[in-house]
Amino acid sequence: MNLKELARTLDLSPTTVSRALGGYPEVNAETRARVVDAARRHNYRPNTRAIQLATGRSMAVGHVIPIAARHEIVNPIFADFIAGAGETYSRAGYDMVMSVVPDTDEARTYRELKSRGTVDGVIVHGPTANDPRIALLTDIGIPFVVHGRATGAELPYRWIDVNNRRAFQRATEFLIDLGHRRIGLINGLEFMDFAIRRRTGFTAALIARGLVPDPDLMASEEMTESSGYRAVRAMLDLPDPPTALIVSSMISGIGARRAAQDRGLILGRDLSVIIHDDELSYLKNGDTVPIFTATRSSVREAGRQAAEMLLHLIATPDSPPEHRLLEAELIIGQSTGPRHP
Amino acid sequence: MNLKELARTLDLSPTTVSRALGGYPEVNAETRARVVDAARRHNYRPNTRAIQLATGRSMAVGHVIPIAARHEIVNPIFADFIAGAGETYSRAGYDMVMSVVPDTDEARTYRELKSRGTVDGVIVHGPTANDPRIALLTDIGIPFVVHGRATGAELPYRWIDVNNRRAFQRATEFLIDLGHRRIGLINGLEFMDFAIRRRTGFTAALIARGLVPDPDLMASEEMTESSGYRAVRAMLDLPDPPTALIVSSMISGIGARRAAQDRGLILGRDLSVIIHDDELSYLKNGDTVPIFTATRSSVREAGRQAAEMLLHLIATPDSPPEHRLLEAELIIGQSTGPRHP
DNA sequence: GTCGAAATTCGAAACGCTTTGGCTTGGTGG
DNA sequence: CCACCAAGCCAAAGCGTTTCGAATTTCGAC
Questions:
Q1: A284 touches chain B (CB under 8 A)
Q2: Which residues of B fall within a CB distance of 8 Å from A112?
Q3: Are B199 and B172 in contact (CB under 8 A)?
């Protein structure tokens, strides 16, 4: 059932039917009622492609997922972010189109997205320091919102981010207040912007309290269970091992726990651990009482908000660049405690 | 730059240009070379929407992600499956469109996908027993491939699945061979088809070896860390606790490990654990030596193959229903060992 | 040379919608 | 009674492709 057919059954012109459905004023109230009713009865849905062709807008948003050629890792926060963003899109009648591409092809993908008119805007995932995509997308002219920030970016851009620096600074202070002096950082890969900020917060807190950051106590790796395990094991093997750790993700935290266990250490007593908790739906940090003490911020909520920002940007393209900085909570779980004598 | 413009600069008709680019035979080789060259130089990409309108095919595939109203869980295997499928789509020039919808709205979503012409086919995720979507999609007439199977479905349909029954049967036999007699099953929710099959394999193995399945040793819950933890704790508290466990996912397995640790049990010595490992990129079961003994099958590969099957189905709609059953490997890690005396 | 088939190329319709500009109709004010 | 206006409706022109059917050119054969 298409517009023309529907119009014919109503004995109206396609024009009028289109207007009635589109909510335009110049159509008789009674006529509109008839049209709306018929549309519902016949289960009429305008063909998206046709609308897109006619209006030039595609009513779709793109998410480009770069797959690094070297380490083929899909970002674990991805599913939840998408779930959040998807809710917003559905409500607004937008489609979400996903492109999984080798990171070497990313530029070409964005260009195609634009020249083929596939999407009206994109969300940029996992920004690095000086992320080239910001200049690229600005150049191409696709509206975009970044999930995270890109230290060093010259151009203005829209972003939503967690205050990673502050979160890690607070976490570090919290451990210092508990008496810890040897604190390790198990960070993500430090070309990622969020990891840079976390380290900054971490060292800032140490220095502010008169402690000296020790390179041996700072690891920077992929956030997997195994690398968390390895990094922590290595630190525990040091002559002067840490008594507390800040770990960049729930998953590495689990690896850290395994390493501690291997050494017969009990979390919260022999070794304090704070993780960052993205509130992933399938990897909750405990349900009633948190397993780990954590800096917490919902990535799903970030997805929701990022999508809102993008839709708003698409609707009013020359609104001033908007930023949102979400604060993480520090929640106290069972994995931290005062320094063991 | 669109077709018409390109045609004008070449002093050809849009028809000829279209044909030249489309690889149709009835165009002079030299002309074609000119056209192709110009297209590349001007960076011409045909507008997807227009193609779709003209041809009726949308060159897009849909993935509908139901968000259960009750437990808002995004399937953790989702990201990796998508990554696999996405690779296939990219290569074939297909877009992937994702809809995140409350599971109560799923039917409406599929209907819209069809009536608006958004996609040429869909992948069905997470089938349950007697999954209503199979009848629905058959009725609507959208080509689809199911990731998993739906016990009890009347109609023929395409699917790709892991041999869950066999995998769990083998895992159980393996434990029995190690001398275990009290074996627990920490399963996923048993309205999910895969969970049903796993349980079947589990009990079949017990019975075949003359053991009696004990309801107290069979848990069925969401596959989260916390529920794995709770379930295992409960089992360990039994008067006659299990000496071995089969756990439906890496994540619940981690919860199981925590429960064991709480009781001072060492995996592989005091308690044997086998998990099912989907080879999630961000949650690898160890890198060199596996952490857990596991039944292993790559969900990413499943994604790749599911996408292939769907594209094939779209291309030749009345090919006979195809099925693929992937066998899981049993890999031996450090979490299993002979029954402790 | 001429003819006809084969090789190329083109015009125009179609896909399903939006939107511009115009056409009716009925009512209002002078 | 007429000019004018607003309200309501419609015809037709796009949007950027594909594709059918026809037109043109080329070329070998007669």
A1: yes
A2: 45
A3: no
Name which of A292, A302, A190 is nearest A246 in CA terms: A292
Q: For B274-291, what is each residue's pLDDT tens digit?
A: 999 999 988 999 888 899
**B258 SS3 class:** helix
Helical segments of B189-249, H only: 193-208, 225-236
Chain D, protein-covered positions (CB within 7 A): 7-12, 14-21
| Each residue's pLDDT expressed in tens, for chain A with a length of 341 residues | 899 999 999 999 999 999 999 988 889 999 999 999 999 999 999 999 999 999 999 999 999 988 876 666 778 899 999 999 999 999 898 999 999 888 888 899 999 999 999 999 999 999 999 999 999 999 999 999 999 999 998 899 999 999 999 999 999 999 999 999 999 999 999 999 999 999 999 999 999 999 999 999 999 999 999 999 999 999 999 999 999 999 999 999 999 999 999 999 999 999 999 999 999 988 999 888 899 999 999 999 999 999 999 999 999 988 999 999 999 999 999 999 999 76
Q: Cα–Cα distance between A80 and A78 in angstroms, integer?
A: 6
Nearest CB partner across the interface for B100, out of A74, A76, A90: A90
Q: How many CB atoms within 10 Å of residue A155?
A: 11
Footprint of strand C on the protein (CB under 7 A): A 2-4, 14-15, 18-19, 21-22, 44-47, 50-51, 53-55; B 11-16, 19, 26-29, 31, 50, 53-54, 56
Average pLDDT over residues B186-203: 97
Footprint of strand D on the protein (CB under 7 A): A 11-16, 19, 26-29, 31, 50, 53-54, 56; B 2-4, 14-15, 18-19, 21-22, 44-47, 50-51, 53-55
Pick the closest to residue B274 from B329, B221, B207, B227 (CA basis): B329
Alpha carbon distance B129, B194 (integer Å): 9
**pLDDT at position A26, please?**
87
Digit-coded pLDDT (tens) for A246-271: 999 999 999 999 999 999 999 999 99
Which residues of A fall within a CB distance of 8 Å from B254? 225, 254
Across A114-220, the runs of DSSP E, i.e. the strands, are 121-124, 144-147, 158-162, 183-187, 218-220
**For residue B317, what are its two tokens?**
């709609």
Could you tell me how many helices (H) and strands (E) chain A has, helices first? 12, 12
The gap from C-alpha A160 to its chain's centroid, in whole angstroms, comes to 8
**Strand ordering across the sheet containing A218-220:** A218-220, A183-187, A244-247, A272-277, A293-296, A329-331
Q: Is the dihedral of CA B189, B195, B199, B202 positive or negative?
A: negative
Return the pLDDT at A124. 94
Residue nearest to nucleotide C13 (CA to C1'): B54
Beta carbons of B49 and A43 less than 8 Å apart: no
DSSP 3-state assignment of B60? strand
Residues of chain A numbered 67-126 and touching chain B (CB < 8 Å) = 67, 72-76, 78-80, 82-83, 85-87, 89-90, 95-101, 111-112, 115-118
Tokens coding A114: 């634009």
The whole-number Å distance from B258's CA to D26's C1' is 82
pLDDT in tens, A93-120: 899 999 988 888 889 999 999 999 999 9
